Amino acid sequence: MLPKQLLDLFEKYPSDDCFSYITKVDSSADEILIDFFINTYDSDDNGPIVQKWTIQTVGHKKNHFSIGVDSPIDIKDDHPLLWEFTDIQCELYFKGKIKNPQKLSYDLSIIHKNLFDNFQIFNITFEDKRSNFKPFQYTNGLLTKGSKKLLERYALCLKENGLDYSLIGERPLANQPVKILFLGDSYVIAESFAFTSRD
Description:
Layout: H1 4-12, E1 19-26, E2 33-42, E3 47-64, E4 69-70, E5 73-76, H2 83-86, E6 89-95, H3 101-116, E7 140-147, H4 148-160, E8 164-171, E9 179-183, E10 186-197
Antiparallel strand pairs: 1-2, 1-4, 2-3, 3-10, 5-9, 6-7, 6-8, 9-10
Helix pairs in contact: 3-4
């Protein structure tokens, strides 16, 4: 949940008119400290409005920072980027002969893009320049590992491309709630976030 001061700002001014700037990230300890400010302009002759904040993570898990001008912040407790910490983990195996691995690779990458946008790299590769590997040169094998929710989507794609599949090795995770904080092209995953106004 965002602080009331920020929520009031976003309610009064269109999100397209509010810009955030990360000015400092301190990751020297287990938890992350983020300094940023929100900038907008009041068209009723009040001039520019600036709010300065510090965020401290509680139970930090993962982060990716992109320094620059971003859009307003948001916190979610349900997002595909959280699945590696909240969902059952398992392995996806394929079985059968694929005639068009390029199409399959493209179809899988589109699923990935729709779920993760540009926040996470698509890491299923069909080429290995270090060997004579050929895409799907065998009729069965491991495709990838990950969260069950993600692999179930990949599995449907395998089926649509003429392959059978198996999901095995399910490993439940500790049911510890985590949230994701978005700040433009940056994100942080943690159990919670503490906001301190620096105005």
